[in-house]
Specification:
4 strands; 20 helices; about 475 residues; two-stranded antiparallel ribbon; mainly alpha; single chain
């Protein structure tokens, strides 16, 4: 019988009729179907799609934490200990299953918008904009899914009945092709906004869709295409690197910065806030409303312990380093991370820090990476892009060359090591390092993992297991569709 799983899934999907508002600070209730012909009704539907990003097992917790725990610079504590050692146990497999469900829930929300808009009597410009945003969202979701599981069932229509549950597994190439098409459709629609006001914070702009596509092309090894998109965003002059790091990750309402491109916006209210601080901190310091302290610094990781200059301001900003912070550490908890701090959080699920998905430092490092690979070595433009990120780390003028700090004279391998190091130091706790490890030459990534103590790592660990219940309840899947090694 396939019905039980579907009913559980349907119960989750029906939550789109009562979602938190992602990009304003007002909770909302979906309007009834007969109201969807109005702009207000269609906007409510779109807000439901954005709310998919906030699901507890997506960006609020499991998707990001599972990726961070697999980064070689981090170990887990308590129930997260096994995943930090690449030794999955039933508890963490359950969390991965929950992430799958949440991410396909988010896909279904986007599919609902895409399927509903053509029949609505709306201004065509508004309809085109909402369609472009929903397609870009779906592209992001499937990009995250394919990077995590490889080939998966490719659902492009909303699930509305039992007949929509059974669907065969598509290849990674087919999933990536759909991701690319969704993002190209969104970008080429000429309907995405260049910017939004404060009341629409968190919506996808044209540059938001472009940076996702640049990252997709980078992941696929289409370096010239990635380089061109990233260069266009850099040359637009719309963004700069904010020098003050606390401003970039501020928990205060309405906080933004000059490098913000696309973020999950959180508020200090109920379950509508950021949850990651609760997993990061010791509450004795007042940094968060809860202190699970499960995100532990791996003292064996070279990226943290050998190459990171003490003069780099990001090191003190990201790691427990002050005497007060060190005092709460122990042999069992040798190091913690502190990028997200909210002293006024309203509960373990209610911290106000916005969660960056892409910011200007992404654009600069993606450009440096793609440019060097496309040209078989770094060009002056690649150096400048990477050095801007590095200079900001040292708190000096971003646009002024600085011989004491800048990278220079590197071959391709040396430059790529610099790119990966800068991204590691820049994006701690942003769910990026694990996916960067996947893109490195396999022997290099394995050496980093092994040097950091990844003795339980197996080849299967590059992908997550497809949930057992998906195979059991999708009549188009069999055990042969499971990822190798599981």
């Amino acid at each position: 019988m396939k019905t039980k799983y579907f009913l559980v899934l349907l119960g989750t999907l029906l939550a789109i009729t009562s979602c938190e508002d992602v990009y304003t600070e007002e909770p909302f209730t979906f309007l009834p179907p007969e109201s969807l012909g109005s702009e207000e009704g269609a906007l409510a539907l779109l807000k439901g799609a954005y709310a998919g990003l906030q699901l507890r097992s997506y960006y609020q917790q499991d998707f990001v934490l599972q990726a961070e725990m697999r980064s070689e610079y981090m170990n887990g504590r308590g129930s997260y200990l096994p995943v930090g050692r690449y030794d999955l146990d039933p508890r963490n497999i359950g969390r991965i299953d929950d992430a799958w469900e949440a991410m396909f829930n988010a896909v279904n929300r986007a599919n609902t918008v895409i399927a509903s808009l053509p029949d609505l009597d709306l201004d065509e410009g508004i309809k085109a904009q909402f369609m472009a945003e929903a397609k870009a969202l779906r592209g992001l979701h499937y990009f995250n899914i394919v990077r995590s599981w490889g080939g998966v069932p490719l659902r492009l229509e909303p699930i509305e009945g039992l007949g929509g549950v059974g669907i065969p597994k598509s290849s990674p190439e087919e999933v990536y092709a759909q991701v690319e098409q969704d993002l190209i459709d969104a970008i080429n629609s000429n309907a995405l906004a260049e910017s939004f006001g404060a009341s629409d914070e968190g919506r996808l702009t044209l540059d938001g869709a472009r940076v996702i596509l640049a990252h997709v092309y980078l992941t696929l090894g289409q370096y010239s295409e990635s380089e061109a998109i990233a260069k266009g965003i850099i040359d637009s002059g719309r963004y700069t690197l904010e020098l003050d790091l606390p401003t970039v990750f501020s928990p205060e309402p309405g906080a933004t910065h000059s490098g913000e491109i696309f973020s999950v916006t959180w508020i200090r209210n109920g379950s509508q806030g950021m949850r990651l601080p609760s997993f990061m901190h010791n509450t004795a310091l007042g940094y968060s409303s809860a202190g699970f302290r499960v995100c532990l610094r791996n003292l064996n990781a070279p990226i943290i312990n050998e190459g990171w200059d003490e003069a780099d301001l990001r090191k003190n900003f990201n790691l427990y380093n002050t005497p007060e912070e060190v005092a709460v550490l122990s042999a069992a908890i040798p190091g913690l991370f502190k990028k997200y701090i909210d002293r006024n959080g309203a509960g373990q699920n209610a911290h106000g820090n916005d969660q960056p998905i892409y910011r200007y430092a992404d654009i600069l490092t993606i450009y440096a990476w793609a440019n060097a690979m496309a040209n078989n070595g770094p060009t002056p433009d690649a150096y400048e892009a990477l050095n801007q990120v590095r200079r900001r780390g040292y708190g000096v003028s971003v646009t002024t060359p600085n011989a004491a700090i800048d990278y220079a004279g590197l071959d391709l391998d040396g430059f790529m090591d610099a790119v990966w190091n800068e991204r590691a130091w820049e994006f701690i706790m942003e769910g990026k390092r694990w996916y960067d490890l996947q893109l490195m030459p396999r022997d290099k990534a394995l050496a980093l993992i092994n040097e950091a103590g990844g003795e339980f790592f197996e080849d299967r660990d590059w992908l997550y297991p497809i949930p057992r219940q998906e195979i059991d309840n999708n009549d188009q899947l069999t055990n042969a569709d499971q990822n190798p090694g599981y």
